[in-house]
Protein: Glycosyltransferase 61 catalytic domain-containing protein
Amino acid sequence: MVQYHRLIIHHGRKEERFRVSVEEVGSLKKAKQKFLSFLFLTILSCCFIVSPYLFGFSTLSLLDSFSRENEALSSYEPAPVCLEVSNGTICCDRTGLRSDICVMKGDIRTDSASSSLILFTSTNNTTTPQKIKPYTRKWETSVMDTVQELNLIPKHSNKSSDRVCDVYHDVPAVFFSTGGYTGNVYHEFNDGIIPLFITSQHYNKKVVFVIVEYHDWWEMKYGDIVTQLSDYPLVDFNGDSRTHCFKEATVGLRIHDELTVNSTLMSHGNKTIVDFRNVLDRAYTHRIQSLVQEETKTKLDSKKPKLVILSRNGSRAILNEDLLVKLAEETGFNVEVLRPNKRTEMAKIYRSMNTSDVMIGVHGAAMTHFLFLKPKSVFIQIVPLGTDWAADTYYGEPAKKLGLKYIGYKIMPQESSLYYEYGKDDPVIRDPDSLNDKGWEYTKKIYLQGQNVKLDLRRFRETLARSYDFSIRRRVREEVPHLFVS
Ligand SMILES: *[C@@H]1O[C@H](CO)[C@@H](O)[C@H](O)[C@H]1NC(C)=O
Ligand SMILES: *[C@@H]1O[C@H](CO)[C@@H](O)[C@H](O)[C@H]1NC(C)=O
Ligand SMILES: *[C@@H]1O[C@H](CO)[C@@H](O)[C@H](O)[C@H]1NC(C)=O
Ligand SMILES: *[C@@H]1O[C@H](CO)[C@@H](O)[C@H](O)[C@H]1NC(C)=O
Ligand SMILES: *[C@@H]1O[C@H](CO)[C@@H](O)[C@H](O)[C@H]1NC(C)=O
Ligand SMILES: *[C@@H]1O[C@H](CO)[C@@H](O)[C@H](O)[C@H]1NC(C)=O
Ligand SMILES: *[C@@H]1O[C@H](CO)[C@@H](O)[C@H](O)[C@H]1NC(C)=O
Ligand SMILES: *[C@@H]1O[C@H](CO)[C@@H](O)[C@H](O)[C@H]1NC(C)=O
Structure:
């Protein structure tokens, strides 16, 4: 069962259409179950070091959300709702297109058995009960249907003995779900980690994260990042039947746009996506230092710029990758081919990206790792037939906002494996939009799962040369900045 959605948003004067299609949620769940048994076996056998990235899914590369002839769900300007919440009240901001968020203050106690947060008040009728699903894909009903709903219940009581606090917290809580599409690296960053940063960074780590639909593997994979945002252990809401008491709680996460942080929408401070990247850098510093110490490998010639290829196999692979590597080396690059799999540690991917000048990859969820590139690096996304809109919206535009030099390399029909399968006159080649118009199943089967790329290296050489020149000029500028002061 494949779900398909259209949302018509009336946004000011402008009517914006936003359409996304999603991968079958059930199959994702099954995949997760498989991973859980894998985790179990791994722990039993203890054969190798458990790494945070071990149970990641980035290589599944199901870019579930997809669209055509669209405009993106634009960034919106929420009224500053619920910034000041008075004691004993619940305030919900439901003006966002991508997420709802509720803030409550007072005597808050959890009751996971009834999926509730109870706000005890000493006066009657001060606030109304609310329901909220703390996940950031509000417009996609099919996935929201799978997300656990929380009840926020005000309760009058003059006896504080109503519910005894098992755990008393002196700092605020942020409640969010790691259900939905969690399991795909694009969604993990876009719907989870970046919104978590947006919602919680101003607490300066004095905040407790309470996770609804918690997974051990998520904590292992993202623990390094989470500890940069919170000094406190995570609370597994459903798995912990104790009553946790807070004085303040935010339920749900704020989100801006695709894979970005918009500083003008930050209610506390003017943080940007670069600040988010700095959090990643701090998160991986320790691990990378120990990796460097373990190493005996000879160092690469650091005078040359480094190019990393994020390699896929299965679908959307580069069929002549070996020749591409040779060409890049001839152009003057040190080349690293990265084939992240389920066991690749996140810190190792970060390290490869953070030391690269150029990243090349074919459109897919693994492109999310552009977030690991240093600003002013070059990101070349190879855009297969029929994927222009998604490539640009999900990765191209966000990459520019991080300060990368983005190059979308749109392939010619002859560079697609589909050209040889269907022939040059087939609508699949001539008019991908007409196929995309037929529905997500067509897009997915033909363009995402059925396509490989054989680069025309005479054509691609230009892109490589441009990237090389750009990298050299950037290095010179950084190494001898005084020459460029006017
Ligand atoms: C940030 O949000 C504001 C307000 O919605 C918008 O006008 C602006 O274009 C956004 N900036 C970026 C870089 O998207
Ligand atoms: C807030 O409300 C709770 C319960 O309604 C009360 O115990 C607490 O003292 C109040 N705090 C402040 C700062 O008014
Ligand atoms: C508040 O409501 C409770 C139950 O609904 C009732 O017992 C109590 O008398 C009310 N108190 C006031 C001050 O109205
Ligand atoms: C509380 O609200 C209910 C219905 O909204 C109303 O009937 C009742 O009179 C209110 N009580 C107080 C004490 O305001
Ligand atoms: C709160 O106190 C009032 C009077 O002191 C009493 O009538 C009422 O029943 C109490 N309510 C609860 C819920 O204990
Ligand atoms: C952000 O705010 C800080 C302090 O308020 C200020 O120093 C800095 O210049 C601001 N940065 C931007 C990009 O506005
Ligand atoms: C990333 O690269 C920068 C600049 O080369 C370096 O200062 C930083 O320590 C690196 N980050 C990590 C986590 O290794
Ligand atoms: C992809 O590569 C892995 C090992 O790198 C291999 O096990 C797997 O079979 C490959 N998949 C395809 C479809 O070629």
Remarks:
- Residues 1-72 have pLDDT under 50 and may be disordered.
- The longest strand covers residues 101-111.
